[in-house]
Amino acid sequence: MVARHGTLEPRSTQAKRSSVKCVMDSIKNSSSRPALEGITLEAMVTRLAGHIGWSAMAAAVPIRCFTHDPSIKSSLKFLRRTPWARNRVEALYLDLIDHRID
């Protein structure tokens, strides 16, 4: 028996709590986008623009910096301040990687 907050728990309950904590930690770590680790936003936008073009990017993520006079600089400025748009661009980049459009 192990004391936990003033009560006694059997060791099996303590082991279950420990394994649940490990599973929860691994879920948190797996959702942190390991595929994007080490890849800058600039690299993502540059690769997307080079491979699929600005018009396809604008169709996938309809934002003004992709549709009107697109540039890497204006896109980065907007995407760094706009989380929903950045998430869509990251998802588009992951699709590019998953489908191996090289």
Task: Describe, in short, the structure shown.
This protein is mainly alpha-helical and 102 residues long.
Comma- or semicolon-separated keywords:
2 strands, two-stranded antiparallel ribbon, 68% helix, Transcription Termination Factor Rho, Rna-binding Domain, Chain A, Domain 1, 2 domains, mainly alpha, 102 residues, 6 helices
Topology overview:
Layout lengths: L1 E3 L2 E3 L1 H20 L10 H11 L2 H7 L3 H4 L4 H10 L1 H17 L3
Antiparallel strand pairs: 1-2
Helix pairs in contact: 2-5, 2-6, 5-6
The Rg value, from CA coordinates, equals 22 Å
Mean pLDDT: 78
Element string (H = helix, E = strand):
EEHHHHHH
Structural class: mainly alpha
| CATH fold node name of the largest domain | Transcription Termination Factor Rho, Rna-binding Domain, Chain A, Domain 1
Count of separate structural domains: 2
Describe the protein.
By secondary structure, the chain is mainly alpha-helical. It has 2 domains: 2-32, no CATH class; 35-99, Transcription Termination Factor Rho, Rna-binding Domain, Chain A, Domain 1, CATH 1.10.720.30. The protein contains 6 helices and 2 strands. The chain has helices spanning 11-30, 41-51, 54-60, 64-67, 72-81, 83-99, and strands spanning 2-4, 7-9. Strands 1-2 form a two-stranded antiparallel ribbon. A hairpin with a 2-residue loop joins strand 1 and strand 2 (7-9). The longest helix has 20 residues, at 11-30. The model is unreliable at 22-32 (pLDDT under 50).
